[in-house]
């Protein structure tokens, strides 16, 4: 997950490109979905089988959530994104 977060915050312009209507970018979007979602799904399936994760959590939904947490902006930088993804993965915040 750390590597995925680093990839997302480093490639901040990638999100716009992936949502572009430019036909040359469609293969990039497919590559992301065809490669990363199945890999994430395998990990989630293993965690669910061990009772460590709700089996209703899907790879696509988790990856979209992480992606949204990694959209940087004024007052929200790489460290904020990492902290928020850590909270998402923990499923709770004992500090609250």
Short description:
Helix content is 65%, strand content 0%. The chain is an all-alpha fold.
Overview of the molecule:
The structure is a single chain. With about 100 residues, the chain is mostly helical. The protein is built from 5 helices and no strands. It has helices at about 1-10, 15-20, 25-50, 60-70, 80-90. Helix 1 (about 1-10) packs antiparallel against helix 5 (about 80-90). It starts with a helix and ends in a 6-residue tail after the last helix. The model has no long low-confidence stretch (mean pLDDT about 85).
Which range does the strand content fall in?
A: under 5%
Major pleated sheet: none
Quick one: how many beta strands?
Answer: 0
Shape: flat
Tally of alpha and pi helices: 5
Measured between the Cα atoms of the first and last residue, the distance is 23 Å
Q: On the 0-100 scale, what is the average pLDDT?
A: 83
Q: Residue ranges: pLDDT <50 for 5 or more in a row?
A: none
Set out the fold topology:
Elements: H1 2-10, H2 14-18, H3 26-49, H4 59-69, H5 78-90
Helix pairs in contact: 1-5
